[in-house]
Design brief:
With 356 residues, the chain is mostly beta strands. The chain is built from one helix and 26 strands. It has three domains: 13-105, no CATH class; 112-235, no CATH class; 242-344, no CATH class. Helices cover 1% and strands 37% of the residues. It has a seven-stranded antiparallel sheet with strand order 10-11-12-18-14-15-16, with no helix packed on it.
Amino acid sequence: MAYTTINKSTDHFNTLLYTGNKTANTTISGVGFQSDFTWIKSRTTGENHHAFDALRGGGNRLYPNLSNQQSNISTTLTSWTSDGFVTGTDDGTNASGQNFASWNWKANGAGSSNSSGTATYCTVSANTTAGFSIVKWRSASGAITVPHGLGVAPKVIIMKEIEDSGNWIVGGFGLDWNGYFILSANSAFYNSGDASSGSGRMFKAGGTEPTSTLLHTNGSAYMSSTSNNVIGYFFAEKQGYSKFGSYVGNGNADGPFIYTGFKPAFVMAKYAASGGTGSWHMYDNKRKGYNTENDYVQANTASTENSDTDQVDFLSNGFKWRANGSETNTSGGTITYMAFAEAPLVGSNNVPCTAR
């Protein structure tokens, strides 16, 4: 059985739903901890996704579904509290009467300067217990090394330049680190466009995959300017709490079961077969909150919440597809996923979790 030192997953990740009121300085409470990375999406209107983190500071939003540069908007998420966050009147985070989902991860506050790599102006905020860190650094024209603070090699990395328009670049999932996805698009896995060889690679500069301490990267491969700052989110697997990988679809309603070793609180899936396109499907245990009616939003679009046929069961030890959705259960297709726990199958306190 799964064993973990994290008995309360909601100390490190939690989904919080709320209804907007378009009132300045509205405190949204109930996260359960002070979040360091908050991702917000309107469920009922076609607003862009909004991403905020403690290293860039409140008000500095990025759109996960767009390549736009960071904008400072004082009426969005302005700050965090010990149990949530404060938002202003911006429709993307607090439109009156609209329903919102927020996904919240705990790192280690505003972080601290880290010069253990060759990247300059580098700040690292790392939660080694939960395997999550936020890193901000200055890009360069050649290969550099970026410390991530996790103490183990990451399984997924999401990064983006801040000052100019540029794609969100995603690597990992047990796939070839030479390749990458684009978070803000439904495009296929690029397994040759990362640069032909050598130091130009985004996640494997000089042929070195991410290690327990460093990301080897070359900013010139994905930055519009080599003097821009980059934000990166690094995820490592923690038994009983997080799992990142891929599965093969079977194309029918009795879909594949993916073992995680915990009851999922959040799953994001992306079609990854060679040449195949597909949106990033985001599910959690709060919207609807029962099997099989787990509605999703698409990370790469501003579309409203969707409740069509791509249905999934959250079980005590993993998740199982209950439909033949073309982007989550195509027959013979490889689909990547990232999952975080509601509760471990069995924690260090030997208390088992149950299915929904």
